[in-house]
Every structure is written in C-alpha cells, then in structure tokens.
Specification:
alpha/beta; Spore Coat Polysaccharide Biosynthesis Protein SpsA, Chain A; 2 domains; 9-stranded mixed sheet; 12 helices
C-alpha cells in the first residue's frame, strides 16, 4: 500500500445540497498530496451520485458505500482504507479553507509531540451566512481540562481535526457505542498519549442548520460524554463522583434557534446575518418581546 501524506475522510448521509462544495474545497487545497475517501452511509437522496460523478473526474477521490450503519462505522471503515500518514476529518456539509491541509500538515511535521491538531472555525448557516467563531480553547491543557470537567461538548470541532493515523489505529480508532460523543472519547484517549491542540487560524467553515442544531440525539450525547469522562478518570487513576442527579437537557424552545443565531451573528460582527435570523425569529414568534429586542439590536448593528 503506497504512502501519501494526507487521507481526508468524509462520512456522507443525505447532504446533496452541500456535498459538492465540500468536495471541491478539498480539491482546491494548496497542499496536493492527498486522497479523499468518502463513505456513503445509505443515503436516500442524490448524494451518492454527486460524489461518484466527482470521483470519475478525480482519481484522488474514492467512494465507498454501505447500508446505513452510522458515522462511527463509516469513519472506521475509511480509516481502514486510508493510505496517508495523517488523516484530515471532514464533514460533507462543511467547507475547508484552501490552506487547511498545508497549515495543519506543517504543524504536525514540526511538532512531533502533537498527535492531533484542530483549528479555529467560522460557523455558517444553511445559506453560508457567517455567524461567529466557534473555538475558545487552543492549548492541550485547556482542551483536556475542558473535556475532563465539562459535560457540554467538545473543545475541538471534530471535522477541523487532523491526526496521526498510526496512533489512532493503535488506539483502536473510534469505539462503537460512543456515538454521538465518539469525538470526545477519542480526544480524551489521544490526550493520554500525547498533545492535542487547536490552531488559531480559521481553516474551516463549520455549518450549522436546523437539522444539525435540533439536537434530536442531545440527551444520548450528554450520557455518552459523561461515560467517556468516567472512563478517562478510571484510566488516569482519578477519583470519580457520580452526579447527584441524572444529566438531562432542558427542552429546546422551538422558537429560540434563530434568536440564538441572531445574537451569535451580532456578537460575531456580522450584522447582516443577525438581521436575517432576527427576522426569522420574529416571524416565528412575534409575541415574544426578546425577539423584538434582538431585531432592534440587529438593525442598529450592536
């Protein structure tokens, strides 16, 4: 099996609206020694045909297909097929900056103690409108402490990450049964073998939209994050205390999504995006004073 520098892996499920742009963003990379492996996980829309057409145009793109088995199985299958020294994670609805591979490859080549490197990301909505930056922690110590202490999510945006393939294979790759917290489980295990970090450069447009932000699996995710943390405490010989009450999420307000995104965009310095989502929030629930408040702030631009 011939060696290349970077294997990008992309699980695919029903993202026909976005997947071509995602693939094209890999094809535009300034770093050219890469392959892109795509696993169609039983899509029922036109996603598979789109990527197969793209693969016929570019021999560096390889497409695999299976019955729907979930993202963990899809990524592990792609990791088994990968030929690269490094693996760049990528989601099928995101957009990589042209220099992403070059910047991350150069960092890992010159920082042998680091096993995984993520980056700052710019959150975008379904129509590519910018909302805000998404990463707040950058050093190994900040990230690992957050993963050990918090039950709210990951400090590294999963599809922004690039890691050393041999180390992840040695760790057993992603563990079945950890979804939808497989990223945090992997980050905790990697942090026990070496350093992980985020670069301050924005290298990815990370898309959020109603389908992803509805958090249909959020309760299970909270439980899986807690379990990943508990196992990490055990591996590291740290004392673990069970929470006094079960971890539960508050019921998502169906009218709060666009209001939240409007505030994000306003605080992120994107008033046009703020006005767009404030207007959507106001149309959904015009009786709510806070929706009028965010609209007034968005119109003023602060």
């Amino acid at each position: 099996m011939s060696q290349i520098s970077i294997s990008a892996i992309m699980p695919l499920y029903n993202t026909e609206r976005y997947v071509e742009a995602a693939v094209r963003s890999i094809q535009r990379q300034t770093f050219s020694d890469w392959e892109l492996l795509i696993m169609d996980d039983g899509s029922t829309d036109g996603s598979r045909k789109i990527v197969e057409d793209l693969a016929r145009e570019d021999s560096r793109v390889r497409v695999f297909a299976s019955e729907n088995a979930g993202a963990v199985a899809a990524r592990n299958r792609l990791l088994a097929e990968a030929k690269g020294e490094y693996v760049a994670l990528m989601d099928s609805d995101d957009i990589a900056f042209e220099n992403r591979f070059e910047v991350q490859f150069n960092f890992l080549e010159t920082h042998s103690d680091h096993l995984l490197i993520g980056s700052q990301v710019l959150l975008i909505d379904a129509e590519d409108a910018p909302l805000r930056l998404g990463v707040e922690r950058f050093s190994h110590e900040e990230i690992d402490e957050f993963h050990l202490q918090r039950n709210t999510g990951a400090a590294i945006v999963h599809p922004s990450a690039m890691f050393r393939l041999p180390v992840v294979r040695e760790l057993g790759a992603y563990r079945e049964g950890t979804f939808p917290a497989e990223d945090i489980d992997l980050f905790l295990r990697l942090a026990e073998k070496g350093r992980i970090a985020n670069l301050p450069q924005v290298l990815l447009h990370y898309r959020i939209h109603a389908a992803s932000a509805g958090h249909a699996k959020r309760q299970r995710q909270l439980e899986q994050i807690r379990e990943a943390r508990r196992q990490a405490y055990s591996r590291r010989g740290l004392p673990w205390e069970e929470p006094a009450k079960p971890i539960t999420m508050s019921t998502e307000d169906p009218h709060a999504l666009h209001e939240r995104w409007a505030w994000w965009a306003l605080m992120g310095g994107y008033p046009a995006s703020a006005r767009k989502h404030a207007w959507k929030a106001l149309r959904q629930a015009p009786w709510r004073p806070r929706h009028w408040k965010v609209m007034a702030c968005a119109m003023r631009g602060y």
